[in-house]
Amino acid sequence: MHKPFVVPPELEKKLLARRGKLHAYESFDPKKTALVVVDMQNFFMADGELMAANGSADIVPNVNRLARAVREAGGFVVWIQALAEAPGTDGWDPFHALFHEKAQARRLGSMNLHGDGFKIWPDMEVKPEDERVIKKRYSAFIQGASNIEEVLRRRGAEMVLITGVATNVCCDSTGRDCMMRGFPTIMVSDGNASFTEDEHQAALLNFITYFGDVQSTDEVVARLKAGVKKEALPA
Questions:
Q1: Are 224 and 33 in contact (CB under 8 A)?
Q2: pTM more than 0.90
Q3: Least confident span in 93-102, 119-128, 218-227
Q4: Is 5 within 8 Å of 189 (Cβ atoms)?
Q5: What is the mean pLDDT of the chain?
Q6: Where are the alpha helices (DSSP H) in 20-100?
Q7: Scanning 87, 151, 160, 182, which has the fewest C-beta atoms within 10 Å of its C-beta?
Q8: Among 122, 103, 119, which residue's Cα sits nearest to residue 111?
Q9: Is 164 helix (H, G, I), strand (E, B) or coil?
């Protein structure tokens, strides 16, 4: 498990000067909240896989807890799965050029629609009412990558929580573009995992500085419960 995320004092001063508060989103409507779970798949989590993130299994309890809390509060969960396509067929040649031939073959063999690496990690609590989205780029929002934006807008999302692997790659890319497409976005600090502590912490620091908010699982769950309680109060 990564270390708890802490905003350095100098950055906290800057955020307070700009926002008037540390957290951009101190409250949100639970019923209009989407939990987006990025790439919690065997390929990115299983020991021995090509792109497995260290400690990714450690965040499983937090992600499952968030999913339960969001559903109970009236929101919804979106499971994103990365799909590998053969070089020369998907228009992503610069990406494929970063892998040697054997690595390309291994990735394609594991992350095709029927590959074991494509499957969601078995300990994830996926429910029939959850949404499923397949993406073909680091960011689920970039043109042609997936239908995530259509799903969020159809379901009326007004707050998006980002969890998954890896913090500084697909989660960060998806979270940034999510905000830039008009959705308030929170990266859940202990609901994301990366390859190293430095990569994880740097991505979260950059995100809270420029793109949205970073909160822990405990903080998000508390805000969901507070939102439910507020809605239950008589007008």
A1: yes
A2: yes
A3: 93-102
A4: yes
A5: 95
A6: 42-45, 60-72, 93-96
A7: 182
A8: 119
A9: strand
